[in-house]
Specification:
0% strand; single chain; Serine Threonine Protein Phosphatase 5, Tetratricopeptide repeat; elongated; mainly alpha
């Protein structure tokens, strides 16, 4: 009898514990299924974007937000897609929705800030860059700092640009867009040897572009190295003969 009473007490305790944790409702299951469907369609949308199949990607991403309108990654990818195909108004709307639904996410804020800066809204972009820096779980803060530096550089705020770009390089010494931007910044400041050093670091990890070749030409001209500047000009004219950068060297020369 003693053991039987103990069993009753145990069963009653289990019943009480079960009452503390209500069973999942049908509505909860539906919400969970919708979230999974949004995640799946967003992943598919990203894959199609990577392949350049924007039409199918757009269909998948629209389906994702139809399942869960609050799923910020889908809105961010829609923003990137619309930006890629030149639909800037729609891109801005999607980036804004992403921030609305996930206001503390570093990636979400960085993407919106970079978009705003590309639209000439650098001052408005600053608060979103700052929000991205504050996300302790953001895995690529170097990208946000780099983008913030490029944005400041585009607004000719060289002091702020240098701060952000150096912070990005503290996270990743080989982030190429920061190295090229630091070369430009040093060139603008008249620190030509520093500009050359940053450009050489850039060239050691990235193929030369019309932009980097023009900068090399300008830096070497400023340093008075005619042989090096002529070499940059020759490469620019051979590889990118129809570029605006090539035309600029012939005008300067």
């Amino acid at each position: 009898m003693k053991n039987f009473k103990g069993l009753i007490v145990l069963l009653l305790a289990l019943v009480w514990l079960a009452g503390c944790y209500p069973a999942s409702t049908k509505k909860d299951d539906e919400v969970s299924d919708a979230k999974k469907a949004a995640e799946t369609n967003t992943a598919l949308g990203r894959q199609y974007m990577d392949r350049g199949q924007y039409e199918i990607a757009l269909e998948k991403l629209k389906r994702a937000v139809a399942f869960d309108k609050t799923y910020a990654p889908a809105h961010t990818l829609l923003g990137i897609l619309y930006e890629n195909i030149g639909m800037m108004k729609e891109a801005g709307e999607q980036y804004s929705l992403a921030v609305q639904y996930d206001p503390t996410d570093g990636d979400v804020n960085n993407n919106y800030a970079a978009f705003l800066c590309s639209e000439g809204k650098g001052k408005e972009a600053e608060k979103y860059f700052q929000a991205s820096f504050k996300d302790p779980f953001y895995t690529t803060p170097q990208i946000a700092y780099s983008n913030a530096g490029l944005c400041a550089l585009s607004m000719n705020d060289l002091d702020k640009a240098e701060i952000y770009l150096r912070q990005s390089l503290e996270y990743d010494m080989e982030i190429s867009q920061s190295l090229l931007a630091m070369a430009k910044l040093n060139y603008r400041n008249g620190a030509y040897l520093g500009a050359r050093a940053f450009l050489q670091r850039y060239e050691s990890i990235e193929p030369q572009t019309a932009e980097s070749l023009l900068l090399g030409y300008q830096i070497e001209r400023a340093l008075g190295d005619t042989s090096a500047s002529n070499n940059y000009q020759s490469m620019l004219l051979q590889r990118f003969p129809d570029s605006a950068e090539a035309a600029q060297t012939t005008q300067q020369g």
